Amino acid sequence: AQSVTQLGSHVSVSEGALVLLRCNYSSSVPPYLFWYVQYPNQGLQLLLKYTSAATLVKGINGFEAEFKKSETSFHLTKPSAHMSDAAEYFCAVISNSGNTPLVFGKGTRLSVIA
Amino acid sequence: DSGVTQTPKHLITATGQRVTLRCSPRSGDLSVYWYQQSLDQGLQFLIQYYNGEERAKGNILERFSAQQFPDLHSELNLSSLELGDSALYFCASSVGTGKLNTEAFFGQGTRLTVV
């Protein structure tokens, strides 16, 4: 079954510092991969998705992620953290046929320190 | 605003009771998904409907059931509630299945508290 593992349940960065949130997938066939963000008391919002086109995917709010098949990874990065980036981030996967529901990682809480 | 509407936003009920959560998908979306979010289990997929028919089943308890109506709205029924059912329940919708399933839009959730 498809699954993703997010390394680090909590990441803390200083404002202006690089954000790196890690996600590894388990699949013999490259799946479709997603990053969602959840702000307090809100639903999940799609940040970006990889669907086998470009391996470097740009999303909203300055985030991007790179699909690396050799490392089975899809890490999320942002060059400079803002206070407004503080939220819970979820990596998710579906099969590349799209015939499975989204399966989420455990989530990583990002704190941004002024 | 994702276009997915969930009601109610908050629900407090007693153990043993039954509740119904409602979801209206985005206009044009045929697939509806239900997820449960709790601190210990994270985001767990419960069930998916596509155009009125059950499409996929996840970790859904037998005490829980769902359906999708002809107007495409969906309801999640939770019965014989236990304290451990307290969680945030999310509905999501997408255009379809397969390649059309690659973007799901989430509602703001229903927070269920069982006391």
Written overview of the protein:
The complex is a heterodimer of chains A (114) and B (115). By secondary structure, chain A is mostly beta strands. Helix content of chain A is 0%, strand content 54%. The mean pLDDT of chain A is 92. Chain B has no helices and 11 strands. In chain B, the strands form 2 sheets. In chain B, strands 2, 4, 5, 6, 9, 10 and 11 form a 7-stranded mixed beta sheet that branches. In chain B, a hairpin with a 2-residue loop joins β5 and β6. At the A-B interface, β5 and β10 of A face β5 and β10 of B.
Helix tally of chain B? 0
Total count of helical runs of at least 4 residues of chain A: 0
Structural class of chain A: mainly beta
- First and last CA, distance of chain B: 31 Å
- Give the beta-strand count of chain A: 11
Largest sheet of chain A: 6 strands, mixed
Radius of gyration of chain A, Cα only, in angstroms?
13 Å
Q: Strand pairing plus helix content of chain B: what structural class? A: mainly beta
Strand percent estimate of chain B: over 45%
Helix content of chain A: under 10%
